[in-house]
Write a structure and sequence with these properties.
Radius of gyration: 14 Å
Strand content: over 45%
Oligomer: single chain
Helix content: 25-40%
Largest sheet: 4 strands, antiparallel
Distance between the termini: 22 Å
Shape: globular
Structural class: alpha+beta
CATH superfamily: Archease domain
Number of domains: 1
Number of strands: 7
CATH architecture: 3-Layer(bab) Sandwich
Strand order of the largest sheet: 1-2-7-6
Number of helices: 2
């Protein structure tokens, strides 16, 4: 996983990258997870699968990361890791299998309110896929 946090006045901004688009999306998920739970290790007690779509790669990224917040808020499910991801770049469809555990088994304080389109990009540059996102905290 390759991501780094950048300075931002009020929110959390990160850049992630990967050799493939899937690797870059998984790196983005890692940055989001670190922002949500810090260095707390979450058990892989349960697996969930989901599918999201978008009108472009940025929309697909937004919906992918938003699913993490949706699962946390609606099902009290804290994602540990992305086990599998498949992206259809032509139709902007993503299928993922994630593992995690009930959030009530953990104590964490950094609340991500939303994923934003602010300064967001998904692009291929110098043989790598690069992603940038700002999280509203």
């Amino acid at each position: 996983m390759s991501y780094r946090f950048l300075e931002h006045t009020a929110d959390v901004k990160f850049q992630a990258e990967g050799k493939t688009l899937e690797e870059a999306f998984i790196s983005s998920a890692g940055a989001l997870n670190e922002t949500i739970r810090g260095d707390i290790l979450v058990s892989e007690a349960e697996e969930k699968s989901f599918e999201v779509s978008g009108k472009d790669l940025e929309g697909l990224l937004y919906n992918f990361l938003e699913e993490f917040l949706f699962l946390l808020d609606s099902e009290n499910f804290l994602i540990s890791k992305v086990k599998e991801i498949k992206i259809d770049e032509t139709n902007f469809i993503l299928k993922a299998i994630v593992s995690g555990d009930s959030a009530e088994n953990y104590s964490f304080t950094n609340d991500v309110k939303a994923i934003t389109y602010n300064e967001m990009f998904v692009k291929k540059e110098d043989g790598f896929w690069k992603i940038q996102t700002v999280l509203d905290v």
